[in-house]
């Protein structure tokens, strides 16, 4: 890089920093109706900012879960009716993307559970897509109004501990079903040996998504940091957690499913051999 380009690059960076600082000072201090402690507590427990749904007060994550589920089901129906019938031998970019996505989860299921993987592939594909797009959902910043009349942005569905526990327990039941299908009642015993698995899966998922939410809330709360920086923090944390948690939960589910669904045959004694 020439000296002239270095000077231009330095000037651009200094200009961006200057614009950011000017923006921080111009926005000034913003008053919040909640303390940072209350914001953090509500992000975990959802005991204050609730939304009315058919006369019932529910956590904002419930609305997020219904919205994400509806979007994914609608997208799946459209793809099945209008996209898949038009698949070609030479795939388009969207067809190639779908094939790569399905191939990734199919390969993950077959590599970890070579014996029984038909239903497993379907489940980890569904769970992986839900985790990934459910995590990205909070980036859209869709607004809702609480029962107290306060506007809030809808969070990721799995940032609610109840949703994370539900998905963890569902994955555990899928693992147990594989053990029962392969080894009968013995499969239940093999699965129950790892009784802490649903707890670890649930809290790993919840903790990872919640940490990103808390860091973003902390950055937004202080006016000195609430200009430009939250965009970078939110996008990086959300994308990172979406990718990592999708891979971790689907990998663990397929791995344990493969272990309990493996058929163990008793060694037959050979006659005439002492």
Number of strands: 4
How many helices in DSSP terms?
9
Summed up, the domain count is 1
Beta-strand content bin? under 5%
Percent range for helical residues? Answer: 55-70%
Q: What integer value in Å does the Rg equal?
A: 24 Å
Q: Characterize the biggest β-sheet.
A: 2 strands, antiparallel
Quaternary state, please? single chain
Q: Which regions have little confidence, pLDDT < 50, spanning 5+ residues? A: 267-274
Q: Enumerate the strands of the largest sheet in spatial order, edge to edge or round the barrel.
A: 1-2
The ordered string of helix (H) and strand (E) elements is: HHEEHHHEEHHHH
Please name the defining characteristics of this protein.
two-stranded antiparallel ribbon; single chain
């Amino acid at each position: 890089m020439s000296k002239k380009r270095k000077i231009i690059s330095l000037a651009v960076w200094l200009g961006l920093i200057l614009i950011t600082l000017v923006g921080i000072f111009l926005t000034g201090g913003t008053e919040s109706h909640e303390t940072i402690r209350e914001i953090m507590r509500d992000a975990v427990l959802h005991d204050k900012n609730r939304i009315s749904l058919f006369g019932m007060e529910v956590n904002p994550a419930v609305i997020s879960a219904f919205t994400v589920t509806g979007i994914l089901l609608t997208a799946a129906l459209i793809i099945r009716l209008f996209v898949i019938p038009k698949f070609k031998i030479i795939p388009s970019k969207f067809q190639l993307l779908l094939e790569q996505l399905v191939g990734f989860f199919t390969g993950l299921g077959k590599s970890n559970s070579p014996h029984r993987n038909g239903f497993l592939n379907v489940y980890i594909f569904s769970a992986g897509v839900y985790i990934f797009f459910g995590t990205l959902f909070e980036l859209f910043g869709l607004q809702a109004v609480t029962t107290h009349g306060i506007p809030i942005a809808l969070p990721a569905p799995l940032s609610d501990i109840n949703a994370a526990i539900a998905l963890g327990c569902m994955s555990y039941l899928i693992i147990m079903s594989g053990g029962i299908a392969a080894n009968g009642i013995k499969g239940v015993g093999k699965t129950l040996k790892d009784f802490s698995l649903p707890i670890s899966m649930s809290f790993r998922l919840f903790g990872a998504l919640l940490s990103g939410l808390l860091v973003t809330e902390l950055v937004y709360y202080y006016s000195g940091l609430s200009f430009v920086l939250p965009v970078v923090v939110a996008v990086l944390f959300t994308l990172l957690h979406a990718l990592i948690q999708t891979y971790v939960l689907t990998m663990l589910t397929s791995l344990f499913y493969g272990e309990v669904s493996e058929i163990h045959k008793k060694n037959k004694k050979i006659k005439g051999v002492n």
